[in-house]
C-alpha cells in the first residue's frame, strides 16, 4: 500500500464501522481501497480509549474501531460507541459488522448456511434488532417483548432496497471482493493449525444438526452422530447467500439448541441470527447490523468458520456502501444529535 494520506479534518469521516473481534477488524481493514493516516487535527476525547483505523472504501471515508480485546457484549459495545462519538462528533451512520450464529430453518424457507450473510432489516414492529434478554414473563405463561431497538438510518435502509433490487438481476460482488482481499493479503488465505484462514471451509464442514442431537465432545463434529444431521439440498457454489430479517441480540452466548429455540419462540419474529453486541448499540448509535454466519447457535459451535464469516460480512458491507450516496450521508443527522433526541 502506498504511503498513507492524511485527510485535512476528522469531519471528513461520517461513517463508523464497529467490529467486536480482532479477526472481524482484520477483515474490515482488508476491504479498504486506501488506508489513511489519522486526520489532521484529530484529538481523542479524555474518556476515549478506542484505537482507530482510517481509510476509504469507494467514495466513503470510514473509521474502523473494535471493542477492547477479550471484551464483548452489549455493555462493551455501548461504551465503545459513546467514546467514538465523544471523539468524532461528525459521525452520521454506523455499521456493526462481524460474525453471528445462524437460525437455520430450511423447511421454512430460511436455508441459512455457514458463511452466509445476514442483515438486520426492520419488519412491522421490529427495528431489525430485538434484545432477547428484555422479554418479560407475564401471568399465564405469556411473554411480553420489551426490547425492540431503534431503526437503522434511512439512508442505509434505502441502500438495502437498492442492493436487493440489483441482486434480483445480477450476482453479488461479495465473491469478487473476497478474491481481491486474498490477492492483496495472501496470508489471509493460508490455513494453519492455529488459523483456518479467511476462505470457505468446505461443504463437508458445514453440518446442521437437529435440535435434539447433542455435541459429542471434541473440537469438531467428527464424533457426532450422522443420524442427527438435517438433510439439505446441496449448493452448487460456495458463494454466500444473503438473508434479511430480525437479528436477536443479548449478553448471553447462545450455544444450546433448546435455549435457542425457546428464545426464538419468545421473540416471535422471523429471527435469522443471534449476536451479542447490537443491543448495546441500537439505542445509542444509529446503525445497521451485518453478520457472517459462523455457527448455528447450538452445542456443535466451534471456531472454524469465524474468519471466513468475518470476511463475507465485511465484503457485503463494502458492496452495500456503493449504494449509499455520500451527499445523503452528509444530510443525515449526526449520530450524537439522534442520541440526544432519543434521550
From TrEMBL:
Gene Ontology biological-process entries: nucleoside metabolic process
GO molecular function annotations of the record: catalytic activity
InterPro entries: NLR-like, Nucleoside_phosphorylase_d, Nucleoside_phosphorylase_sf
Pfam families according to UniProt: PNP_UDP_1 (PF01048)
Matching SUPFAM superfamilies: Purine and uridine phosphorylases
Gene3D superfamilies reported for this sequence: Nucleoside phosphorylase domain (3.40.50.1580)
This protein's name: Ankyrin repeat protein
Protein species of origin: Eremomyces bilateralis CBS 781.70
